[in-house]
Amino acid sequence: MKKKLFSVLVLVMTALMLAVSVNAAAYSTYTYSYDGFALQSPDAYVPERVVDMSYIGMPAGTYDIRDLEVDSAGNVYLVDRGGNQVIVTDRYYKLKFTIHDFVNEYGVPDTFNAPQGVFVSDKYIYVCDTDNNRIVMFDLDGNYVKIVPKPTAEYFGQSSLYRPVALAVDQFERLFVVSATTYQGIIVMDDNANFSGFIGAQKAVVSPLELFWRNFMTEEQRAQTSDYITTEFNNITIDSQNFIYVTTSSIEEATMLSVMRNRDKSGDYAPVKKLNSSGNDVMARNGFWPPSGEVDVVETSLANTPTGPSRIVDVAVGPEKTWSIIDDKRSKVYTYDNNGNLLFIFGDFGQKLGNIPSESLRAVCYSGDEMMLLDGVNSSFVIYKRTDYGDLLIEALRHQNDRIYDVAVDDWMNILQRNSNFDTAYIGIGDSLTRDAQYEEAMEYYEAAYNVSSYSSAFREVRKEWVSHWIWTIPLVVIIICVALSKFFKYANRVNKETQLKVGKKNFKEELLYGFHLIFHPFDGFWDLKHEQRGSVRAGIVYLIVTILVFFYQDIGTGYIFNPTGAYSGFFGQIISVGVPLVLWVVANWCLTTLFDGEGSLKDIFIATTYSLLPVPMLVFPSVIFSNILAENEGQLITLLVGIAFAWAGLLIFFGMMVTHDYSLGKNMITSLGTIVGMAFIIFVAVLFSSLVARMVSFVSSIIVELTYRM
How far is CA 412 from CA 8, 244, 415, 452, in A? Predict the structure, then answer.
């Protein structure tokens, strides 16, 4: 009875110690992060003028402008949904003509009904006549050409509601149509409404719980449940190489948050995609974050501050393979290069110079060195002029795309003088140095940009040169290490055999070396550890300290490729992360096994657990060394070594408890699970006690402050 009461007392004391260690760890653990892009960069575009309906020459009234397009001559095309018209201006933003009504091929007067999208090719104007469920074509002078009705094909689905809201046309005059009610993907057809198929369907978001329950449903129940509908697109554009850029804003916020926080670059749930003619997503996402707009997705308590992921509503292709997306939630523009690197951000909601005066951005397009943003609320568009910094950035991209790398390096250097935090400049210089076989210098620039992939490629070349220089020394060192390890294990085996026959107390060396017998012979090893007194607490503490030191070495010694952000928790943090779980396991196991006829004492459990840690430093230590000599695609070896270390140690702890308490396999499994539950209970008590102490301290301090003021 006294033993059981003592176990409860130890349980409570452990919880109190854990509460203290948790509070201490909060002040001793440091982590460093990197956002991948500095927002304090020079402006690439600045506002030049705001063009509203009165500036164009339109009469006063209410307008609902839904789309904006610019042709090669600089003419601007605006879709006014409220007025059922298309407004066309010249390059000076003065009214040329409007398309309001027309006579169709049957000689019948016709009009639009809530049009939403427009696309201009070198021959035709294509208007998405949304509520009339059709596309209407005009020539560049606004003369009616023909109507493209709903696609004609049995497998399109004649009962499907067809509401075109945006479209793009390639050089072969194929139409790629976004329909507001179509979730199968982009509709592909010709201008005679001959349907070719769907491309680029979004991936459906299905929770694991839904998939689990469907396994137990009957066919009738499955038929009654809703289909897993993919998200539809909302806008589209096309570049000179016939690659299609599409956007969507209907992905669930929880899914988008997961994509951004995990830096998922697969594109399965991307709000913007680049599709080839087959509908495959070919967008490069090599930036530090996936190109999805806002990366600061942390919730904020500031009033009127948008939170959560961006709501992407349009995309435009710019010069030198750049492309821009607009965030309707924050009224911002995000511009990326062809590799998915973020180049710059500008815009915000507000009345300050350069901000968007409304909370509704609807469209973006390029016109030479200008960018136009459609303000949906005020029925106007803001013209942004490219700055000298923007010109220099485009020149650098042009020289790089044209493979004039020497000139591109000078451009990137000039950019770094204006913006020393610009990742793409460091990467561009690193690429040029790599082509000149200056790999070590290139590694420095890649490291500055946190470009691990390129750094790894340059590192392989440096390693290859180093290996060729030390071609005869490396095998000799490997042989020496292998021989030394073999000699050590033979020596440890000899000492352990001699100690087996020794009567009486073992010395410290014998207790330490016994661990190398135990890890390879766990069953008789743990038996002798307990009954023959082959181990000791002091040797167990040494193994625990060695494990902490090795984890600390892993913390500070892991190579850049496998720890590019330099994440670091400190020596005290490693003591907490290793010591606290071990103490929790020992105490919880002892308290539980005391109630279930376990034969091991608290001392036995501690010794068996600490001796079981030996494989961890044995394998983690070389994995840290390998992290400094392996490339990125060779990191599986490090993962394998660390995985084996933890699996080995876990099995040793499991079988060590079974032998120590003289349990059967089944009973040991139950008590091990119970121990884990006990650890969780101790943590709960510790957190509860810590919260209670904090409240008491706050209460007492408030009383003292109040008395001080009154006295």
Answer: 67, 29, 5, 20
Task: Report how far residue 462's alpha carbon sits from residue 620's, in angstroms, rounded to the nearest whole number.
Answer: 25
Helix (H) or strand (E) holding 511: helix 508-518
- 514 token code pair: 């016994």
Nearest to 203 by CA among 277, 263, 259, 162: 259
pLDDT of residue 491 exceeding 80: yes
Q: Return the beta strands (E) in 59-173 as ranges.
A: 65-70, 76-80, 85-89, 95-99, 101-103, 109-111, 117-120, 124-129, 134-139, 144-148, 164-169
What is the dihedral sign for C-alpha 420, 421, 424, 430?
A: positive
Query: Mean of the pLDDT values across residues 297-312?
Result: 70
In angstroms, the CA 612 to CA 585 distance is 13
Rounded Cα distance between 143 and 129, Å, is: 16
Cα distances (Å, whole numbers) of residue 65 to 62, 85, 314, 362, 381? 10, 10, 14, 9, 9
Q: Decide: residue 513, CB within 10 A, 0-12 exposed, 13-18 middle, 19+ buried.
A: buried
The DSSP secondary-structure symbol of 328 reads T
- 398-428 pLDDT tens trace: 999 998 888 999 999 999 999 888 888 999 9
Residue type, 623: S
One-letter amino acid of 437: A
Check the CA dihedral 626-629-631-633 and report its sign.
negative
- How much of the chain exceeds pLDDT 90, in percent? 55
Tell me the three state secondary structure of residue 415: helix
pLDDT given for residue 258 in this prediction: 84
CA angle 357, 358, 363 (to 5 degrees): 105
Instruction: Note the residue count of the chain.
Output: 711
Dist. CA 213–CA 216, nearest whole Å: 5
Confidence (pLDDT) at 220: 58
The model's pLDDT over 53-90, given as tens digits with 9 standing for 90+, comes to 999 999 988 899 999 999 999 999 999 999 999 999 99
Q: Quick check: 656 pLDDT over 90?
A: yes
Spatial separation of the C-alpha atoms in residues 162 and 182, rounded to whole Å: 7
- Angstrom distance (rounded) from CA 465 to CA 469: 6
Distance set, CA 579 to CA 413, 675, 680 (Å) = 49, 16, 16
Integer Cα distance of 583 and 295 in angstroms:
39
Q: Which of 571, 576, 534 is nearest to 554 (CA)?
A: 571
Cβ atoms within 10 Å, residue 343: 23
Residue linked to tokens 């590192």: 459
Domains of the chain: 47-386 (2.120.10.30), 391-469 (1.25.40.10), 504-693 (no CATH)
One-character DSSP codes across 427-483: HHHHHHHHHTT-HHHHHHHHHHTT-HHHHHHHHHHHHHHHHHHTTTHHHHHHHHHHH
List the structure tokens of 473: 């020394």
Residue 240 CB partners (closer than 8 Å, separation 6+): 317
| Model pLDDT for residues 441-484, shown as the tens digit of each residue | 999 999 998 889 899 999 999 999 999 988 889 889 999 999 99
Q: Residue 302's pLDDT is what?
A: 56
Identify whether the C-beta of residue 562 lies closer than 8 Å to the C-beta of residue 635: yes
- Separation in Å, CA 355 to CA 105, 307, 385: 46, 18, 14
CA dist 360 → 48, 314, 470, 710 (Å)? 19, 12, 63, 54
